[in-house]
Structure to design on (164 residues):
């Protein structure tokens, strides 16, 4: 059994600073890394108009955050340069296969976990998944907006997943 933690990306600011949702995912990944022990970490997130307009991939900022918190650079797999959840899964797949990863703890936010589970279990049925949920610290109104977005996105993903 070879284990990895996948940390799904979310927005950073135009200077590359992680925003609260990304930080909460990083903190959850840290908890999981310390709980599990020896495992690899795969950060997702490339570039996109709504989440990262810098010259460096979002996953690099996540990796740097985790390294500043004490995780060795040797713990990281290559970054999946994705722009959305389905791409997170499809780009993570060859990285996981190349590294013979059989077990994954997928870290994402509480509002996003249903869609992430749907997508990753479909794209990577051979992987044993555990899901770790990061708490989103936003107002109730903002949280409800995020949940509503996810409901629409899940409907879209159900259509997209028929292609895989």
């Amino acid at each position: 059994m070879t284990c990895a933690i996948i940390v799904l990306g979310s927005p950073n600011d135009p200077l590359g600073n992680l925003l609260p949702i990304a930080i909460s995912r990083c903190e959850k990944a840290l908890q999981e890394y310390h709980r599990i022990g020896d495992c690899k970490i795969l950060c997702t997130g490339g570039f996109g108009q709504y989440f990262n307009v810098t010259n460096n991939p979002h996953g690099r900022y996540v990796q740097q955050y985790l390294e500043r918190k004490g995780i060795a650079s040797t713990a990281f797999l290559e970054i999946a340069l994705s722009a959305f959840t389905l791409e997170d899964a499809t780009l993570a797949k060859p990285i996981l296969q190349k590294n013979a990863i059989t077990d994954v703890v997928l870290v994402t936010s509480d509002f996003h976990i249903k869609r992430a589970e749907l997508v990753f279990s479909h794209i990577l049925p051979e992987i044993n998944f555990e899901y770790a949920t990061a708490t989103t610290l936003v107002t109730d109104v903002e949280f409800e907006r995020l949940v509503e977005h996810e409901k629409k996105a899940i409907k879209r993903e159900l259509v997209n997943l028929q292609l895989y």
Residues 140-161 form the longest helix (22 residues).
